[in-house]
Amino acid sequence: MGLVEKGIRFIEKITKNAGYDQEWIILREDDTSPDYGVLPYQRPINEHIRNGVINLDKPPGPTSHEVVAWIKKMFELERAGHGGTLEPLYPQLG
Amino acid sequence: MTGVLPVALANATKVIGNVIHTIKEYVMVIQLHTPVDNERLREVLRYFTGVIYQRPPLRSSVKRVIRTRRIHYIDLLEHSDRYVLVRVGCEAGTYMRKLAHDIGLLLGVGAHMRELRRTRTGPYKEDETLVRMQEVSEALYLWRNKGDERYLRKIILPVETAIAHLPKIIIRDTAVDAVAHGAHLAVPGIVRLTKDVALNKTVAILTLKGELVALGTALKSAVEIANMKKGIVVRTKRVYMKPGIYPAVWKKRQEQ
């Protein structure tokens, strides 16, 4: 399988897994060079971490903010963030 | 409260904000203050499906004015005596605790939220990708102490999963570096796009290898773009990829 086919398949797979359905309009055919860039799932491990998202099952107790702080510390990162607060006691937003 | 909390690492933090305003799904236990019959409960739950009015609760991070929120569905999973188990699909910013309270009001018996678990936030769901803190810790240990990165690769998803719900535009290698420098996207740089690209909608710009380059705002619909020969069609608003990864074709042309 060529690089382009692998790239498109990857995009189609993550879209489908997330429960979305999208159709393409193809304007032209083109190739991509193996000399630069990399398939997202083939990033070297350090790059993979820095460009990664963890679908975390938030434990009860800590706030979303605290959980993010733990992850940040565990991975020794300068930044981490979450997609939508899930608070321990109060109604969540987002 | 437990459940789906996507956590972005380092660079991925740049785009994780895009999943905040996506659909949410919860499983909630409501405790009724007096038992009601099942027929009446179903009737009231149906009433809360669709567009509802909600005033954010006292303990909330937004202004307390009545606003509307769409409840896509409320599935009654179990009902016994005072306890009601529901699955709710709703718009971002819907307060579940308030919903439970309001259901109690309409039933005329009073009710409150007893337990809550989020089962979906936009592209992230309660599926085989959902991991616990313990698994993260173990995967890190295996990588750092045993040099085995397989588990880490299993629990960390590529950043591209965070834009799975967005319309997409795939561009040629020769256009990548210009966009990575913040340039807007013109028609000749596009290889393919999804049909849901629409005016003023956020789109993800990707390489042919599937790498996220940037997020932008579409200036035309997919059909309009397909019928154009030239012109800017996406205003780049958030660059993800660092410049210099793809060759600077545009720079060479300038120098010539």
From TrEMBL, chain A:
Domain Dyskerin-like: 20-68
GO terms classed as biological process: box H/ACA sno(s)RNA 3'-end processing; mRNA pseudouridine synthesis; rRNA pseudouridine synthesis; snRNA pseudouridine synthesis
GO MF annotations in UniProt: pseudouridine synthase activity; RNA binding
SUPFAM superfamilies (UniProt xref): Pseudouridine synthase (SSF55120)
Entries under InterPro entries matching the protein: Dyskerin-like, PsdUridine_synth_cat_dom_sf, PUA_sf, tRNA_PsdUridine_synth_B_fam
Protein name per the record: DKCLD domain protein
Organism: Staphylothermus marinus (strain ATCC 43588 / DSM 3639 / JCM 9404 / F1)
From TrEMBL, chain B:
EC number: 4.2.1.70
Boundaries of every PUA domain copy: 167-241
SUPFAM superfamilies referenced in this protein's UniProt entry, alphabetically: Pseudouridine synthase, PUA domain-like
Major enzyme class: lyase
Pfam families: PUA, TruB_C_2, TruB_N
PANTHER family: CENTROMERE/MICROTUBULE BINDING PROTEIN CBF5 (PTHR23127), H_ACA RIBONUCLEOPROTEIN COMPLEX SUBUNIT DKC1 (PTHR23127:SF0)
Keyword Cytoplasm: no
A biological-process GO annotation: snRNA pseudouridine synthesis
Presence of keyword Repeat: no
Gene Ontology terms, MF aspect: pseudouridine synthase activity; pseudouridylate synthase activity; RNA binding
Top-level taxon in the UniProt lineage: Archaea
Keywords: Isomerase, Lyase
PROSITE patterns in the cross-refs: PUA
NCBIfam families named among the record's database cross-references: CBF5, PRK04270.1, unchar_dom_2
Family annotation (InterPro entries): PsdUridine_synth_cat_dom_sf (IPR020103), PsdUridine_synth_N (IPR002501), PUA (IPR002478), PUA-like_sf (IPR015947), PUA_sf (IPR036974), tRNA_PsdUridine_synth_B_fam (IPR004802), TruB_C (IPR032819), Uncharacterised_CHP00451 (IPR004521)
Protein name: tRNA pseudouridine synthase B
